[in-house]
TrEMBL record:
Alphabetized GO MF terms: ATP binding; ATP hydrolysis activity; transmembrane transporter activity
The organism's place on the tree of life at top rank: Bacteria
Entry keywords, A to Z: ATP-binding, Nucleotide-binding, Transport
Protein name: ABC transporter ATP-binding protein
KW Transport (keyword) present: yes
Record field: transmembrane: none
Database matches in Gene3D superfamilies: P-loop containing nucleotide triphosphate hydrolases
Amino acid sequence: MTVLIQARGLRKSFGPTDALRGIDLDIQRGEVVAVMGPSGSGKSSLLHCLAGVVLPDSGTVSVGGTVITALSEARRSALRLKEFGFVFQFGQLLPDLTAVDNVTIPLLLGGMKRRQALTAARGWLDRLGLEVAADQLPGELSGGEAQRVAIARALVTQPSVLFADEPTGSLDSLAAENVLTAMLELVRKAGTTLVMITHDPRTAAYADREIIVRDGQLAATDRVGIK
């Protein structure tokens, strides 16, 4: 495997709080990485810097050879839309749009025609077992169904990297396992790199590698069993 994401010397402060204190990290193309650590350890700050959502105070992040920390906000936004997918703990679906319309959003923002975007969106919902839920509103879905819609929305552009922040944190254990299994099956089949924040050791056990962040630094990075 080749290195897809490379971080060097990442430092980030929010007021007097040092969120990141000199992190170096390489993530391989197609690797599934679980980022763990106590609350306030810097996990989310690390993910946001790797994804170009926020800029570090110092240090660099490269993705596929492009130094994204040197790009303008407009170019970083374009890169995120094209190359990155995002899944959050509570899905963050638009409540007034159906499941299929939620999934079309990244495609429409990228310039795809609506008819083509709807076809692609329904295809991804089908892959996640949501054929009958395509025309339902988020409020009509179970928590697990809504999170699978969020995964379809994140993957519909076929990104090179999927960033997931506690993607199963709001679900019961059975729904969490179903969502996680579906997500991992799709990313491994596509060769998508997954960087996933989780507090759950059972979720982390599905990753290729587990990274522990404490006090803004990498405390450990270990290989774990591939499921």
